Protein: Ammonium transporter
Amino acid sequence: MDVGLFTANNIWMMIATALVFFMHTGFSFLEIGLTRSKNTINILFKNIFIITAGLLLYYAWGFNLMYPGFEEGSAGIFQFSMDSFGIAPPENGMTPEYADGGYTWWTDFLFQGMFAATAATIVSGAVAERVKIGAFMVFTVFYVGLVYPIVGAWKWGGGFLDAWGFYDFAGSTLVHSVGGWAALVAVALLGPRIGKFGDDGKSKAIPGHSIPMATAGVLILWLGWFGFNGGSVLSADPELTSLVLVTTSLAAAAGGMGAVLLNYILYKNLDLTMFLNGILGGLVGITAGADLMSPNEAIIIGFLAGLIIVLGVALVDKLKLDDPVGAVAVHLICGIWGTLAVGIFGSKAGGGQFMTQLYGVLIVGAFCIVCSLIILSALKAIMGIRVSKEEEVEGLDIHEHGMDAYPDFTND
Amino acid sequence: MDVGLFTANNIWMMIATALVFFMHTGFSFLEIGLTRSKNTINILFKNIFIITAGLLLYYAWGFNLMYPGFEEGSAGIFQFSMDSFGIAPPENGMTPEYADGGYTWWTDFLFQGMFAATAATIVSGAVAERVKIGAFMVFTVFYVGLVYPIVGAWKWGGGFLDAWGFYDFAGSTLVHSVGGWAALVAVALLGPRIGKFGDDGKSKAIPGHSIPMATAGVLILWLGWFGFNGGSVLSADPELTSLVLVTTSLAAAAGGMGAVLLNYILYKNLDLTMFLNGILGGLVGITAGADLMSPNEAIIIGFLAGLIIVLGVALVDKLKLDDPVGAVAVHLICGIWGTLAVGIFGSKAGGGQFMTQLYGVLIVGAFCIVCSLIILSALKAIMGIRVSKEEEVEGLDIHEHGMDAYPDFTND
Amino acid sequence: MDVGLFTANNIWMMIATALVFFMHTGFSFLEIGLTRSKNTINILFKNIFIITAGLLLYYAWGFNLMYPGFEEGSAGIFQFSMDSFGIAPPENGMTPEYADGGYTWWTDFLFQGMFAATAATIVSGAVAERVKIGAFMVFTVFYVGLVYPIVGAWKWGGGFLDAWGFYDFAGSTLVHSVGGWAALVAVALLGPRIGKFGDDGKSKAIPGHSIPMATAGVLILWLGWFGFNGGSVLSADPELTSLVLVTTSLAAAAGGMGAVLLNYILYKNLDLTMFLNGILGGLVGITAGADLMSPNEAIIIGFLAGLIIVLGVALVDKLKLDDPVGAVAVHLICGIWGTLAVGIFGSKAGGGQFMTQLYGVLIVGAFCIVCSLIILSALKAIMGIRVSKEEEVEGLDIHEHGMDAYPDFTND
Structure:
């Protein structure tokens, strides 16, 4: 094993880790930008909770739960009940032999830990402006601590989806749809925000309070995807990492273009938030097969994801679901699209692969829906999941946190 | 070829690519921060369009147009009319032999693609708050898709400027002045914003709506310049890349100091925006010779760029040109300064080099002025380039996009 | 020496440099977010001054002052009086032999230069909203240009603290406490802001004007700490760098959890700013021993730092000291805690090490207090260090800079 190469690989994985961590800043900006200023602190509190609690939970048992086979004799799902609370690096974990010279055991843990928190963050945006903070925190603990690593183990931990040949390079299904299914269940259980649907049943726009923050959020997320997809190569392999960055960026660009074009055709409006969600849709869409696609295929996948975003947002609205940031369209619908696209484009294209992808989507979907329903229904019964009408109208910041995000401006 | 070294080189170039991509966030923040809140969405829309359309155009033909000689038998400028729409990696493109072991073909494309979009972004700031969005989008397509790669081919593609010995390390001329000349032509054709020059002919300050965003923008741009200049080494050569980061950062610091000092002497005011533009001036100024200068020379070049900024902004004002973000002073004038400085300082200093640099500046300037005039005059005749008076007064956000960037604050 | 490995090491150090530079954006966001909008430009001006002046001063003599022994025959503290103004790279500075193959001389300078500016930035937050800008600028010159490198030389330059076995991996004492002691002295000399303590002597909250910016600031600082601690390994050693990132991130997460929990127990409030300061406390706390601790120890150190933050903020308040951003609790108290923790946890744990750590803390503290007192008292006598009552009430932005940070919102 070449020490220089091992060092280079490990550097790339650490940078990817840093970039995925930075995505939490992107998600925070996006979510607060697309919602009202009176709920800003609440959303930020949720995001900070997700990343801190997420890392600690992943350390406590999530990592061992998700990669049960990595260590000889590891107990996998039961690991957390054993005396080895916390991570216990394998004896050869720090050597260039670990993970075929890709990176150290520490890098492995931290990179995967940054991923883990993402799933709950996706939910955070969808339930914004009306969810009870305590209920959301408990939900996060279960979803990041159990549901995400269990699903992850099925594929990335070497489980049955992996054995079937299901392909999901960086998590269109394993990360984005896992978050997206919970978002869907949560918005259905929570109901729409007050004023979202008029007495006539028509959807009304509730404009976000800071479009610059939403825009910065998407640009930061795009940047973070350099690490999310680029790091999922699990080494610094020059050809593969750089191809992945190209397909990722082209899909993002094409997604934005697709969404803004279709939106203009349908509504005659140059809609910036649709442009932004189209970029995110393209990014989510390419994630399952970023290492398999040619640039032309990446552009097609991204562009179609952009079209899907416009239609998906309209569909969610039609179903009387209130998803303030478009998380269901972006992460769930484009996550499914990206996963299926692996069976349509690239070197794995073919009917057999398509069906495997479809089965994977359905199985993960069923599991996530059931888990979300159980967790959220239990929380609804025990402590309630929605704030009072008064609190929702006056804002969660004052009621749950006793603070105002912008006191110099809103108190005037 | 050493695989470890190739991998390391490629990592550095991918990071540089990510940092140059992040500059678009910096430009966005700077431009909206220095303009009024009523035009914020419009500016952000332009910036998102530039990066998405820019990447796709560069993929479609810009890259082949700019680097015609990279592939044996490549048709260069006519490449885009051939059946190989989109990029077609050379057979050895993914091997360590490509680009002397610097990086893969994919990395090459993406790094250069991120650069390409920068030129149009420079124009975006100058024409802010009054340009028609449709006209600007068409202009972007021509300028990023044709003008930038053609000029780039003259030097970086191995064309006649390169043969002459013209030196432009990372693009004081090829990127910043190319954008700056178009900015100059555009502000002249557009005319000043309503209220910029009083009936007495005196210039009036139109304060930007968010100085924190402008400041963050400049800090992000400085960070991005680590990749812009550091990546222009085209390998991770330890001595050269780290020297470039040192000269870049010292020039930025000296530029800020120069501008804030001269501004204080002239106007007795500790002007933050001048401080920020001085930093940018220093960065643009060092860009042409960041790899040739000693730290002392970098400080001198940067400091003088800072002085030039203060005088340049005053000059632009005196000429009754309205450039809301100071793009002409920063990118055009300091771009010229930096290019000429290569003939004054560093190992290439000398009369012969100076004249070569001057010829390069003039030829590029003439070409960019002519191209900009043709494109913008045609657009003016066909669809108009300036919004109506009513739209300008009420804001482009409501008229062109039907949205408000800060509805919770401005609607109160 | 392996060129591939040297290149990889140098890349990691350059990235760490970039990340530490980005921390200045984080500090800027945090400081303006936690203060009032009328003083925003003033704070940003100070931050931009610190990074630009800091780099130039460190170039002029700080680096040579801090690392006197690096070059054979270097005069150290008297270097700046010699004709070699500015840095003069050693003959073998650019070779793989420099710094045991870790990085080039240029990288060394720039990484350390980015660190240097941090100490003054810590003070900036504490004195916000009432310090005279001119006095602060002079203070910065002395503190970054002299005090910081002298203390640094005692340990990192191979001085007596190093000889004693004092351990401070990345600067809990050498950076954070050095800044924190000056912050303490400065807030004591300045006195509280008008309105901070009522006639009844009770402390009143003066809410910051943008909690989203404060939150983004902390997330960016956490990201920057990947470079601050990760780069302090001074090579890309895979095991050590990745361990450091794990301990750093776990301590940050645990710090946030500790602070938010204790705060909730004491005050029954889910306080976002305490969550954020807890994260920072955890980061400062792990900094002295990030390379020595196991993940479990990092979590304990971080969690205790979080508790310390809540108690520290209350203590500062009780002492009638007005520290708008909590800099004393975060950087001074947690800096001391982190330094002492090296004698309690990790492979160096033991009474002897604990006493060495304690002596180091006390000696550095005494020196910094004396220096700060001398500099600030002299400035108070000569030019005054606090703005007039009128200026403080109306805001420093208008009085010192003639500008408004948010004219579209605050002028309405």
User: Anything to note?
Assistant: The CA atoms of residues 294 and 403 of chain C lie 50 Å apart. Chain C touches chain B through 60 residues (CB under 8 Å).
